[in-house]
Design goal:
- By secondary structure, this protein is an alpha+beta fold.
- It has 2 domains: about 160 residues; about 240 residues, 2-Layer Sandwich (Alpha-Beta Plaits).
- Helices cover about 50% and strands about 20% of the residues.
- The chain has an 8-stranded mixed β-sheet with strand order 2-3-1-5-4-9-10-11. The protein has a 3-stranded antiparallel β-sheet with strand order 6-7-8, covered by helices on one side.
- α4 packs antiparallel against α5.
- The protein is globular.
Length: about 425
């Protein structure tokens, strides 16, 4: 809470500083009409190019500001009302009567407070963008100042995008963290390099969203590069909902004139990472086949143990090798297995593991998600949503918003239907 207060105070100070500068600038221009003409212009080789660039920046800033002013106020009113209601529940409810329910109420109250603070912070950023734009125009259009206002408006747009998407994430477990498991296909080194590129893509997208990914396990078969398998954990709310649509097979396709097409494949699995509490699910130990595998020394000279667990009833297999000891790896693997089983129970709308229909359990390798074509033409085709983008490198640079947004909207539409 203290961090949000400091951030808000910083924006208020910036707001006051910009307001002071603008008032002084207005006074100067009033006293000296020739002052405007005397202001130095940014040096550009093409005046028309500069005007076009400034028009584009102004338009983008105005769009973000208008969107924030329409959505931000109503969102703030809604979230503040929700927070007040939860504060009333805290006052009226005997917190010691039911500790589990009390914990849930307090967690929701803390989340509401964070959202309210973020929306208040958004209003300061909107005002900052508007004031800097006004200052730029008084300077007879200062390109550097417009870029500064544009940066502020980009922050506004990103927050609104994330806020709107999070409001659609109402499915079971979609508000949890995420564990992403990526494995290379059977094409050898090509597939391992492809996995490395996918890891970079997800980490770059997460960084742009303010999410922190942690690589907890990584297996490299070759010293010359590439990754055969990797596990990334995102311990932030809604990460599972954001990444869920990425589950399935991702294929990179390159066609050469003198040979057949080369395909590099990798499978992405997405599992909920429970943040507040581990969901209780009884798994009969008789249905578990547990193997303990010794690993080679890592780059620090340490030997470890991989714990592999197979659920014989469903055929699901999980493993863990990133923890400090064998027991911790066993518990981590067991939690991943339970998370997978909970998702299957939800998808099949059953309550007991014995009710799971094994023939209805979808193998991610049999579920194609996306194709990335590099030659003879460039195209990224999302098989699930039908969305296509023309530049694979743009997507691999972490620009996944069109796909992730489409997957979320599709799931929301199915839930509503």
């Amino acid at each position: 809470m203290a961090a949000e207060t400091v951030a808000a105070a910083s924006h208020i100070q910036n707001y006051s500083s910009w307001r002071h500068i603008i008032l002084n600038k207005r006074r100067l221009l009033t006293l000296s009409p020739a002052a405007a003409a005397a202001q130095p212009m940014d040096i550009h080789t093409s005046k028309s190019y500069k005007q076009l660039g400034m028009f584009s920046l102004r338009k983008k800033i105005e769009d973000s500001v208008n969107r924030a002013e329409m959505l931000g106020l109503s969102a703030l009113e809604f979230e503040e009302a929700r927070r007040v209601k939860q504060e009333e529940m805290v006052r009226e409810y005997d917190l010691w009567d039911d500790l589990a329910k009390s914990s849930d109420i307090l967690i929701k109250l803390a989340d509401s407070a964070k959202v309210v603070d973020a929306l208040k912070d958004l209003t300061y950023k909107v005002e900052e963008a508007k004031l800097i734009t006004e200052l730029a125009e008084m300077d007879i259009i200062n390109y550097a100042l417009l870029k500064q206002a544009y940066t502020a408006s980009v922050d506004v747009r990103k927050f609104l995008d994330k806020y709107e998407m999070s409001k659609l994430l109402k499915g079971k477990y979609e508000f949890e963290g995420a564990c992403i498991i990526i494995e290379a296909g059977s094409e050898g080194m090509r597939s391992e390099i492809w996995v490395e590129q996918l890891v970079g893509m997800y980490m770059k997208w997460a960084k742009k969203q303010g999410l922190k990914g942690r690589i907890v396990e990584k297996k490299c078969m070759s010293k010359s590069g590439g990754i055969s398998s990797v596990i990334i954990e995102f311990e932030q709310k809604y990460a599972y909902g954001f990444f869920l649509g990425e589950k399935g097979t991702h294929r990179m396709i390159t066609s050469h004139p003198e040979s057949l097409s080369e395909v590099s494949s990798a499978v992405v699995d997405v599992v909920p990472l429970f943040l507040e509490e581990t969901r209780d699910l009884f798994v009969d130990e008789k249905d578990l086949k547990i193997n303990y595998l010794s690993l080679q020394e890592d780059d620090r000279g340490r030997k470890g143990t991989m714990v592999q667990i197979q659920h014989t009833s469903t055929g699901l297999t999980v493993h863990s090798s990133g923890e400090r000891n064998q027991f911790s790896n066993k518990m981590k693997a067991l939690n991943r297995l339970k998370a997978k089983l909970l998702v299957i129970l939800k998808d099949q709308n059953v309550t007991k593991i014995t009710e799971i229909k094994n023939d209805a359990v979808i193998d991610p390798w049999h579920q194609e998600t996306r194709r990335y074509v590099f030659r003879p033409y460039k195209l990224v085709q999302d098989v699930k949503t039908g969305i296509q983008l023309a530049d694979p490198n743009f997507v691999l640079n972490g620009n996944l918003d069109p796909f992730i947004s489409a997957h979320i909207h599709n799931r929301h539409a199915c839930d509503m239907g």
